[in-house]
């Protein structure tokens, strides 16, 4: 029983499609939050919370590519 729980937990961590979905959602969410309240993310450019500022920058600068990736991810989740 314990072995089955560990194997399922590891499969969830190493699922590439789930990891990509989480990254895309983080990028889109951080870019949206920065558009609404820039001071919230701009004050934390370094350190652990700086990763959210970096996600926001990726979402702003690469927004056409992020949008295409979100559409592709949505299609793959719905149909595959």
TrEMBL record:
Q: Name one Pfam family in it.
A: DUF1242
Please tell me whether the keyword Transmembrane is annotated for this protein. Answer: yes
Q: Which cellular compartments is it found in? A: Golgi apparatus membrane
| Similarity-based family | Belongs to the KISH family.
InterPro entries annotated for this entry? KISH_domain, Ksh1
Recite the UniProt keywords alphabetically: Golgi apparatus, Membrane, Signal, Transmembrane, Transmembrane helix
Q: What does the function comment of this entry state?
A: Involved in the early part of the secretory pathway.
Give the source species: Clavelina lepadiformis (Light-bulb sea squirt)
Tell me what this protein is called: Protein kish
Membrane-crossing ranges are 20-41, 62-79
How would you describe this protein's topology in the membrane?
A: Single-pass type I membrane protein
Q: What is the lineage of its organism?
A: Eukaryota, Metazoa, Chordata, Tunicata, Ascidiacea
Signal peptide limits: none
């Amino acid at each position: 029983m314990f072995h089955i729980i560990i194997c399922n937990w590891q499969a969830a961590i190493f699922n590439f499609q789930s990891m990509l979905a989480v990254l895309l959602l983080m990028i889109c969410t951080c870019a949206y939050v920065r558009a609404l309240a820039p001071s919230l993310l701009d004050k934390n450019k370094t350190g652990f919370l700086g990763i959210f500022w970096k996600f926001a920058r990726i979402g702003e600068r690469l927004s056409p590519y992020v949008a295409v990736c979100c559409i592709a991810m949505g299609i793959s989740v719905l149909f595959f």
